[in-house]
């Protein structure tokens, strides 16, 4: 989730509702309570750059709302390239955040991340529609896992570890996740997370 | 699937027989003074009654496996003698619709507006080629032309979807049509979200697709210069999505100049950009040019070199 409030908030608790933009799916802007939050302490210029990302995606987001939820979600993307056959950008809830930060020239997560198998994904995704899609070859292509047997999937836990660092550390180098970082705090003894999907 | 149920004579009552076992075998609609009552029957005499206030949206859950039929409108249509029930889930626009089914839907003359719009949005993720692509683009040409001044939020969303698809599939013969969509009328503006999509579409076209440096390609540059010149103003840049429009306009303009080996328009816009003294915008443009170079470098070494040279020149001139 990206915080999209006009004013910085320092009073957020588990009971607070804050304005966010996030890939649920579908991508939507709404007020939500949060369990975790991290910040790179964005400067005003960086905030403007993140806003550019949200502005650029806004109509895509609204078009996505007209579609079925699973149709706009990508578990994994090799690149952000668009093709004439499919001009609808897709995100997971984690890549929606990293994409926004990349717009501000901040790389939150290293490109070298742990690989996940289909069996791992079936443990991670609990939504029935998403689970069904994992067994559908056509849907798996749309989800970005059509080919291969394991994929470097960006998990929400990695984001939490990245944003738990100081703003200076965040800007100096992307976070390189290891197995167990799917959990926050990290749990290296468990390779297959039972946490939220990316 | 839209069903238009006709009232019988003077009675406020309608029936429809449906063939599918997954649907109700009959639906009776009774309009009273205060409510609309749906009497829904399955085979084997299972019956159900639902009441709705006039105009209320209705969702009906049929028997297991609990497929939902969403009746988005329960209201009288056409002077009160017809009742229209719309089933969204049963619509052709569900995800399984093929590219050609969507195209058929777009080509039909009498199609409910909502269905046509859904078909446009769904067609965005379908592959078209040959004569089907020509049909699709011809439909988009007239649909975009007739809606491009719209201020209606839903229309703008669909319009933007159509523009994305068109921009990534048009050939040089259609550039003139595309360029015309940027122009204002003497009394109507193009919504800023539509301007953003048109500008982004031009940028995508140049970034992802091979182009030929001819007069047609050059024609794409003028609306970019006009837009960027209008929006590269301090007050506007901090408002709405104008900075994003300007970013794509400047970047696309650079790509066109690089394709021709020229620099005049890019120098003009780069100078305007530098005068803004907005470091975040400078970084945004550089980041976008960097992304474009990453894509272009994979398919066209000469174009990649030309963009790099122009970029170096612009930075030198800007110092």
Structure description:
The complex is a heterodimer of chains A (198) and B (319). Chain A is built from seven helices and five strands. Chain A is an alpha+beta fold and 198 residues long. Chain A has one domain. In chain A, a hairpin with a 3-residue loop joins strand 2 and strand 3. In chain A, helix 1 packs across helix 2. Chain A is globular and about 45 Å long. Chain B is an alpha+beta fold. Chain B folds into two domains: 2-86; 99-318, Alpha Horseshoe (Leucine-rich Repeat Variant), CATH 1.25.10. Chain B has helices at 99-107, 113-123, 130-147, 153-167, 175-180, 192-208, 215-219, 221-231, 234-237, 242-260, 264-276, 279-299, 301-318, and strands at residues 2-6, 13-14, 26-31, 35-41, 47-53, 58-61, 68-71, 75-77, 82-86. In chain B, helix 1 crosses helix 3, helix 3 (130-147) packs antiparallel against helix 4 and helix 6 packs parallel to helix 10. The A-B interface holds A 44-46, 48-49, 52, 55-56, 58-60, 62-63, 66-68, 70-71, 80-88, 102-103, 105, 142 and B 94-95, 117-118, 121-122, 124-128, 153, 156-158, 160-161, 164-165, 167-169, 193, 196-197, 200, 204, 208-209, 238, 240-241, 243-244, 247, 278-281, 283-284, 287, 291, 295.
